[in-house]
Amino acid sequence: MKIFKAFIIIFFLLFFNNLYANENSQRNEITKNLRCLICQGQSVYDSDSDFANSMKILVDKKLDQGLSEKEIYIYFKEKYGDWILYDPGLNKNTYLLWLLPILIFVFGGAIIFKRSIFKNN
Amino acid sequence: MKNKLILYSMILIFLVIFAVFYKSLKDTNIYTPKAKINNDIPIFSADLLLLRENLTSTEIFKMNEFYLLNIWASWCAPCRDEHPILMSLSKNNKLNIIGMNYKDNKKNAKSFLDELGNPYEKIIVDKNGTNSIEWGAFGVPETFIIYNNKVIKKYIGPLNQELLVEIQKITK
Predict the structure, then answer these.
(1) Are A37 and B128 a contacting pair at CB < 8 A?
(2) Domain residue extents for chain A
(3) Do B33 and A38 touch (CB under 8 A)?
(4) CATH number of the domain at A22-89, out of 1.10.8.640, 2.20.25.110, 1.10.1040.50, 3.60.20.10?
(5) What is the dihedral of CA A111, A117, A118, A119, to 10 degrees?
(6) Distance between CA atoms of B131 and A37, rounded to whole angstroms?
(7) Which of A47, B5, B55, B140 lies in disulfide reach of A52, CB 3.0 to 4.6 Å?
(8) A9 vs chain B: nearest CA distance in angstroms?
(9) Angle, alpha carbons A113-A119-B2 (nearest 5°)
(10) B141 prior amide bond cis, ω within 30
(11) What is the pLDDT along chain B (172 residues), one digit of tens a residue?
(12) E runs forming strands in chain B
């Protein structure tokens, strides 16, 4: 009997561990990167406003149509502009945002490098 | 020499930060998407509110005619305010007014029109709000002027007397 019980437990562990509570992970991934325009400061994923709910439905619809994640971002960007994305691409408005960390890193590195040479001398 | 350099760069950094903060102080932090014009209208099909029909966008919007698409709902207070403007625009026979009923209850929508009059030639239903997102709208009311399947003008928020004059001028 004990063996039978253990067997059942193992059976359940093995065969039901692939049931996800979260079935639409790709949709969630995408809506987390979309900004809700009504409730600004929240993502579409976090928000429960009318607008956000419609956006979720539309994202589902676009995924069903076979659009990729990138194509969906482009689609929304065309309608609402860069602001709708939490992760905006590199363009003339955002180049400072993208390049500043790299510049600071390079400058900082140069200073440290120079100092270490001074010290060695 | 070195001290002076540090002082000047400190002042420069301070000024830059001051300028950025001062500018941001006056900016509004509520974003409204830029009214993109000369965009092609989306392709869709939708049910009508008053008739049992399903129309596609090409059946609704024909070439060489002016269309006004108004997104409205019976629960939206500004829609009530702008309704008289739409009523007077409906007398303009060069302009076809199309309504889009946004996330509304059919019964409420009908009593709204019974009470205030129906300026719309056709009313399409947007039950789950996806169609208005296809149009790039994010609330009610919003109004689009369409000519040759292109959006030539977009108004976010209720129409007013000034915009009425502007729309009349466009369609002349």
Answers:
(1) no
(2) 22-89, 90-121
(3) no
(4) 1.10.8.640
(5) 110
(6) 16
(7) A47
(8) 44
(9) 80
(10) yes
(11) 778 889 999 999 999 999 989 988 887 766 677 666 677 888 888 888 888 888 888 888 888 889 999 999 999 999 999 999 999 999 888 899 999 999 999 999 999 999 999 999 999 999 888 888 888 888 889 999 998 888 888 888 899 999 999 998 888 7
(12) 39-40, 45-47, 54-56, 66-72, 95-102, 122-126, 142-147, 150-156
* B97 within some domain: yes
B130 with A83: Cβ contact below 8 A: no
Nearest CA in chain A to B41: A79
Q: How far is it, in rounded angstroms, from Cα B97 to Cα B121?
A: 6
Q: Cβ of B138 under 8 Å from any chain A Cβ?
A: yes
Pair type for strands B95-102 and B142-147: unpaired
pTM: 0.72
Show the tokens assigned to A75: 């689609």
Q: Assign 3-class secondary structure to A39-69.
A: CCCCECCCCCCHHHHHHHHHHHHHHHCCCCH
- Written as one letter, the residue type at B77 is A
Question: Which residues from chain A sit within 8 angstroms of residue B36, using beta carbons?
Answer: 79, 81
